[in-house]
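Weekly puzzle thread! Below is a chain. First person to post its structure in token form gets bragging rights.
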Amino acid sequence: MAFELPKLNYANSALGAKGMCEETLDIHYGKHHQAYVTALNGLVAADASLAGKSLEDLIKGSAAAGGPLFNNAGQHLNHSLYWLSLNPNGGGIPGKLEAKINADFGSVAKFKEDFKNAGITQFGSGWAWLVLGNDGKLKITKSPNASSPLATGEGKTLLVCDVWEHAYYIDYRNRRPDFLTNWLDNLANYEYAASQL
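Winning reply:
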């Protein structure tokens, strides 16, 4: 069965009032993500040993070698998680997650500061992640290109922010810090993150 672009839980225009315009979604979701899905399906179709493998298995099995299979499978998963990490009514942190954030980071403000710093300091293209670590504690990590906590075994993803330039350039030009601030305050789907705890 071929991999498919996931359905969004909101219209392409739904994030505009929160700082992510419809053109950004049209290009990022409809062009960039679709290109990874198309390439991944081509790679799987060309190699019978990959038939029937889950996306997670493809990522874990190709992480050490890297290359086109890992890049396209990783980008498909990362983007799929990113769309779940966005919400037109985002920004509000449910009590259960807020309590965990306060316990593990000291405060919501410290969590946001650390997450923003991870996104800003990710050199070049990549991702900033809120992860439930293998020790049961929340942690923030970052990864380049197609890598992820799944690929590195760092824990379970709760939220992810895309810091590739195509995620924010139309709306923010080269102002990645402003994009991250807005993402944390207005777009982040903390309800989804809480559901993954």
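Puzzle host: Confirmed. Bonus trivia for everyone else. The chain has two domains: 21-84, 95-196.
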